């Protein structure tokens, strides 16, 4: 049974609150970033810049002679632009069960590996500001990229702003579970359709099929206490 003692519930964004961005569009963003510097990058490098935690900053410098910080800033700006297009068109849509979260009386927050500017756009575009006390995405810098989950940096920043460590982090990846553990808080793994067959090496505190399941579990636990 889920604990009823949490002061706050913090959510990942992509795959939890909103549909993941199509990988092909993110590859497009990387291509745009290289094109800005008149560079045609090999496809393997483009994919690494999207798919891997070990980002190709050394290759960008050594193979293409680019400053990693300048290239990454351009890559982030292109990704923000493309995702805004996807959100406006409805291709990258908010999950319907997000509305269930508004039944909770916890402080709510968002911590994402996506760009902070993208998270800010989502919050504004979908009118979520009144429901979430704070939200964090990564800074558009090399340092910001290196602080992505499973590093707990942004989770801890959100907890500091919320003024609590009695919190639950809800995500859809192993990185989310590990980041929560490193931040010293419980985790809930959301096994949506795109994660049906995912095997985790880290154990979440709870697992739910969707956000409705999470909210119902909280309500049921409180009824038992009463």
UniProtKB/TrEMBL annotation:
One function term, GO molecular function aspect: phosphoglycolate phosphatase activity
Domain of life: Archaea
A GO biological process held by the record: DNA repair
Family under the similarity heading: Belongs to the HAD-like hydrolase superfamily.
Record protein name field: Haloacid dehalogenase superfamily, subfamily IA, variant 1 with third motif having Dx(3-4)D or Dx(3-4)E
Organism name: Halomicrobium zhouii
């Amino acid at each position: 049974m889920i604990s009823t003692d949490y002061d706050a519930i913090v959510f990942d964004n992509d795959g939890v609150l909103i549909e993941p961005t199509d990988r092909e569009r993110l590859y497009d963003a990387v291509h745009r970033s290289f094109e800005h510097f008149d560079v045609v990058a090999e496809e393997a490098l483009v994919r690494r810049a999207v798919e891997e935690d070990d980002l190709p900053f050394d290759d960008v410098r050594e193979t293409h002679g680019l400053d990693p910080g300048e290239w990454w800033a351009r890559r982030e700006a292109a990704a923000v632009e493309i995702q805004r297009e996807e959100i406006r068109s409805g291709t990258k849509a908010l999950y319907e069960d997000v509305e269930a979260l508004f039944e909770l009386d916890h402080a709510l927050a968002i911590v994402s590996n996506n760009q902070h500017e993208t998270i800010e756009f989502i919050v504004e575009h979908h009118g979520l500001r009144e429901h979430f006390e704070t939200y964090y995405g990564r800074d558009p810098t090399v340092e910001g990229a290196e602080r992505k989950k499973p590093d707990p940096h942004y989770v801890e920043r959100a907890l500091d702003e919320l003024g609590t460590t009695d919190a639950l982090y809800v995500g859809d990846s192993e990185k989310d579970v590990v980041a929560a553990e490193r931040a010293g808080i419980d985790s809930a793994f959301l096994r949506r359709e795109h994660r049906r067959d995912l095997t985790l090496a880290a154990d979440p505190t709870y697992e739910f099929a969707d956000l409705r399941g999470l909210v119902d579990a909280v309500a049921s636990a409180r009824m038992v206490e009463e």
